[in-house]
Amino acid sequence: MMNHGGMAVALVGPTASGKSALSHELALEMGDVEILCVDAMTVYKGMDIGTAKPTKQEQKEVPYHLIDLIEPNDEFNVAQFQSEARDASDMVRNLGGAVLYVGGTGLYGRAVLDNLDIPGQFPSVRAELDERAKSELDALYKQLQELDPLAASRMESNNERRITRALEVTLGSGKPFSSFGSGLREYGPVRVVQVGLSPDIELLSTRIEVRFRSWMEQGLLEEVRSLASSPAGMSRTARQAVGYRELLRHIEDGQPLEECVVDAITQSRRLARRQRSWFNRDPRIEWFAEPRDAAKRLREVLTTSDGFVRD
Prior knowledge:
Layout: E1 3-12, H1 19-30, E2 33-37, H2 56-61, E3 64-65, H3 78-94, E4 98-103, H4 106-113, H5 123-147, H6 149-153, H7 160-173, H8 182-185, E5 194-197, H9 201-218, H10 220-229, H11 236-239, H12 244-253, H13 257-280, E6 286-288, H14 291-302, E7 308-310
Helix pairs in contact: 1-14, 3-4, 5-7, 9-13, 10-12, 12-13
């Protein structure tokens, strides 16, 4: 692999592990570092509190990218994110800065850090599949089993989002959806060094609850209510954000608020476990339990040849 010429490093880890605070402090300290947020939900305008989006003051102190890209009623996917991330990283490097990728959305991270081949979008095919899925989801799954049995074996038969996406790509591109996924099962040479934060599990569990209840005090319920009541509403993908999804059940269905809060905390802990599992499969990630040790490695990468992006 050849050095790209630009400097970059990635900070990964589960939700509430301390990535945001560490990355902000490091960027403030180093001066020429700009943060690219690798998160599936901070791309949405107005979804601020429950996504731990950097505050307006923090955004004045450090350059942040890939946040507030779209309206909450818009759909968003990994291919769009990859394109936006490429443009942002090129801009930072062209201005002489270094890129610090920060986030816990594993798929988005792999798409950017490994420069994966992402399937395209086929809107007309997708529209037809979405309509059929309302009453023919079983039939769609059987169709996927026939056209791409490997892809079908990797998803539940009632997962509408994944089934329709797999069929969209298979029918639209003429190639099995599974043929695009080999990059997720294989880990090639290090293109961008990844530093992982891995705090104690019990500590992380406590942090998640304390943080979510703090968000409630800051006005998260009002934020979700405002988003849901806006004329355009929230898109399907925006509604899947952990915390927002559970509070929407209180706002729209009348479920008791404390039940929704407890469920949001539970789902956040489950998200953290899934994120740990995702990242733990990648043997290239360098793990640290203590933020100061992770920070030391991040500085080292950005000031040595380890920081060059290799293509």
